[in-house]
């Protein structure tokens, strides 16, 4: 699903009117109706609209207009509606203008009384810092919410004061439980601090014709999209159908990496997993990973060309190669990587396994000048912000702010790689500058070994013939989906997940895409 900027949204709106006669009032009717429908769908089956007290904060522009349409629909379905028109300071409770008492007191009572408050103050038209009286109004809401957690907060299109292009927020903005955004998610939702203000994201349909495509080069990865990408599993198949993955991962201090990555490649459906390991390491893997096969390499103190040769000889017929997790950073190992890369570059496109480089694979590369010139075509690299900084001559890379998007886009084009930049909202940029962002984050994933799982999943998808950009996108989405399943099934709230917990839930995360609404 496209992610849009404010100006892209305005262009769409103008095109809808010019080319299809869909004027602003028509779109607003659609927006208010779909917001009402999504709101109701979220209440059911636990609550219903009958008798529900909903207070709408109505702003001066079209966002306020959307709120009024939504309010009308909820009223017709039995909700008890109050409207506060911010500009006119006018309060209407169940159709009656409130005039006998100072409006401020009445409003405070309404806020205390509400089951839900809907923020329809400002949307994409916000153009300056919020005025003091609007901040004061939002502060009252925030205060009530801190007293009463059951008060539901919903924003239409976006929380007031959030910059839809950058994710910056006004000091008066409040974090909501649900944002019902209209037509497309806005870029600022995906970056901090804005990301923390959105709550659950719902996308309302405002009836823009399918033929009107936004010009944006940025997409949100959705479950429906991943579902379509997943490889077919025909009846007439065997393990060869689903590709072989070779892993050059793990070393004496970090044996678990190869286990986690290899297992994950198998869990997304790859046909055969081979770990390239030394004899010394073999007993560990043979006893923990029964399904793996092994390419036995000379010990780490052997000549680098012998180590590289042993791997290269085994590579024929492999569809994917993962280099890096737990590999170590000795000069000898770096030499091995360089020789393997040289071999890969020499192969014709249809004979070359797709390459993923992660972790120590990247650390080894970043020590070399113009390292990206050493990569074969279509390589996937998966740095976290620290590794990204080292790959980009020490620049500081944020974990979740907007600058990371432009950086990733620019570097993926300059380096001609598929760049997966990890963070709280992981994003992927391809060599043509298209980007995809994973909305779903799960802080339980911030633990050792989860990156190895992700790299393994990408390799597993590559082995099954997915394009590098798609393989990385599907893996990122399913990685967080699997973490959500672990949390749910193991009763984990935010911490305590082990990377190995993810493994049995990966297949379930693939199945769940079938039912995904977003
Ligand atoms: N884009 C679409 O296709 C659709 C958008 N819809 C909704 O419309 C808003 C955008 O509407 P717009 O009227 O342009 O902007 P706002 O409602 O956000 O506010 C504009 C309004 O507010 C004043 N204003 C701006 N900044 C401030 C401020 N800091 N303090 C006070 N007042 C401010 C400004 O002068 C205007 O009067 C979009 O978000 C959707 O909700 C449609 O309804 C559906 C189609
Ligand atoms: K709003």
TrEMBL record:
User: Which note does the record give on the cofactor?
Assistant: Binds 1 potassium ion per subunit.
- Which residues hold AMP? 422-426, 451
Q: Which reaction does it catalyse?
A: (6R)-NADPHX = (6S)-NADPHX; (6S)-NADPHX + ADP = AMP + phosphate + NADPH + H(+); (6S)-NADHX + ADP = AMP + phosphate + NADH + H(+); (6R)-NADHX = (6S)-NADHX
Residues annotated for (6S)-NADPHX binding in this entry:
62-66, 123-129, 157, 326, 384, 452
The record's function comment reads: Bifunctional enzyme that catalyzes the epimerization of the S- and R-forms of NAD(P)HX and the dehydration of the S-form of NAD(P)HX at the expense of ADP, which is converted to AMP. This allows the repair of both epimers of NAD(P)HX, a damaged form of NAD(P)H that is a result of enzymatic or heat-dependent hydration.
Q: Where does K(+) bind?
A: 63, 119, 160
Q: Which organism is it from?
A: Dictyobacter vulcani
Q: Which residues form the YjeF N-terminal domain?
A: 9-214
How it assembles, according to the record, is: Homotetramer.
The cofactor(s) it depends on are: Mg(2+); K(+)
Q: Which family does it belong to?
A: Belongs to the NnrE/AIBP family.
- UniProt cross-references to Pfam families, sorted A to Z: Carb_kinase, YjeF_N
User: What GO terms describe the biological role, i.e. biological process, of this protein?
Assistant: metabolite repair; nicotinamide nucleotide metabolic process
PROSITE patterns, per database record: YJEF_C_2 (PS01050), YJEF_C_3 (PS51383), YJEF_N (PS51385)
The entry lists its GO molecular-function terms as: ADP-dependent NAD(P)H-hydrate dehydratase activity; ATP binding; metal ion binding; NAD(P)HX epimerase activity
The UniProt entry, under InterPro entries, shows: Carbohydrate_kinase_pred_CS (IPR017953), CARKD (IPR000631), Nnr (IPR030677), Ribokinase-like (IPR029056), YjeF_N_dom (IPR004443), YjeF_N_dom_sf (IPR036652)
Supply the name of the protein. Answer: Bifunctional NAD(P)H-hydrate repair enzyme
Looking up HAMAP family in the UniProt record yields: NADHX_dehydratase, NADHX_epimerase
Q: Which UniProt keywords apply?
A: ATP-binding, Isomerase, Lyase, Metal-binding, Multifunctional enzyme, NAD, NADP, Nucleotide-binding, Potassium
Domain YjeF C-terminal positions: 222-513
> Which EC numbers does the record give?
4.2.1.136, 5.1.99.6
């Amino acid at each position: 699903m496209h992610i849009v900027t404010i100006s892209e949204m305005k262009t769409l709106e103008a095109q809808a009117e010019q080319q299809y006669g869909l004027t602003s009032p028509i779109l607003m009717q659609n927006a208010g109706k779909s917001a009402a429908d999504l709101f109701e769908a979220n209440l059911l089956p636990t609550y219903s609209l009958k008798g529900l007290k909903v207070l709408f904060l109505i702003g001066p522009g079209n966002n306020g207009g959307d709120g009024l349409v939504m309010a009308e629909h909820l009223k017709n379905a039995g909700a008890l509606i109050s409207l506060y028109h911010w500009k006119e300071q006018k309060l209407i409770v169940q159709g009656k203008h409130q005039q006998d008492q100072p409006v401020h007191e009445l409003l405070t009572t309404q806020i205390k009384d509400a089951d839900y408050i809907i923020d329809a103050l400002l949307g994409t038209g916000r153009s300056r810092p919020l005025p003091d009286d609007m901040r004061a109004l939002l502060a009252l809401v925030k205060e009530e919410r801190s007293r009463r957690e059951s008060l539901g907060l919903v924003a239409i299109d976006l929380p007031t004061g959030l910059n839809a292009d950058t994710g910056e927020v006004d000091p008066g903005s409040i974090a909501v439980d649900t944002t019902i955004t209209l037509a497309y998610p806005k870029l600022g939702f995906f970056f901090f601090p804005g990301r923390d203000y959105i709550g659950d994201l719902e996308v309302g349909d405002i009836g823009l014709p399918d033929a009107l495509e936004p010009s944006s080069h940025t997409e949100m990865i959705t479950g429906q999209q991943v579902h379509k990408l997943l490889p077919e599993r025909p009846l007439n198949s065997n393990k060869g159908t689903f590709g072989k993955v070779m892993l050059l991962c793990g070393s004496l201090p970090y044996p678990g990496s190869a286990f986690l990555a290899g297992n994950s490649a198998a869990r997304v459906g790859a046909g055969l997993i081979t770990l390239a390991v030394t004899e010394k390491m073999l007993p560990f893997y043979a006893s923990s990973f029964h399904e793996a096969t092994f390419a036995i390499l000379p010990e780490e103190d052997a000549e680098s060309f012998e180590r590289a040769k042993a791997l290269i000889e085994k590579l024929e017929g492999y569809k994917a190669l993962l280099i890096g997790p737990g590999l170590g950073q000795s000069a000898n190992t770096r030499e091995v990587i360089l020789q393997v890369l040289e071999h890969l570059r020499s192969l014709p496109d249809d004979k070359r396994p797709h390459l993923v480089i992660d972790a120590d694979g990247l650390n080894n590369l970043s020590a070399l000048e113009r390292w990206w010139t050493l990569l074969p075509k279509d390589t996937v690299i998966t740095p976290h912000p620290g590794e990204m900084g080292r790959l980009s001559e020490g620049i500081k890379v944020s974990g979740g702010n907007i600058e990371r998007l432009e950086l990733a886009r620019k570097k993926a084009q300059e380096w001609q790689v598929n760049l997966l930049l990890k963070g709280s909202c992981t994003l992927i940029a391809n060599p043509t500058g298209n980007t995809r962002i994973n909305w779903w984050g799960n802080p339980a994933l911030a633990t050792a070994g989860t990156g190895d799982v992700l790299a393994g999943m990408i390799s597993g998808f590559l082995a099954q013939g997915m394009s590098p950009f798609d393989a990385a996108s599907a893996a990122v989405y399913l990685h967080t989906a699997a973490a959500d399943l672990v949390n749910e099934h193991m009763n984990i709230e935010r911490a305590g997940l082990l990377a190995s917990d993810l493994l049995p839930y990966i297949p379930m995360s693939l199945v769940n895409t079938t039912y995904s609404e977003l």
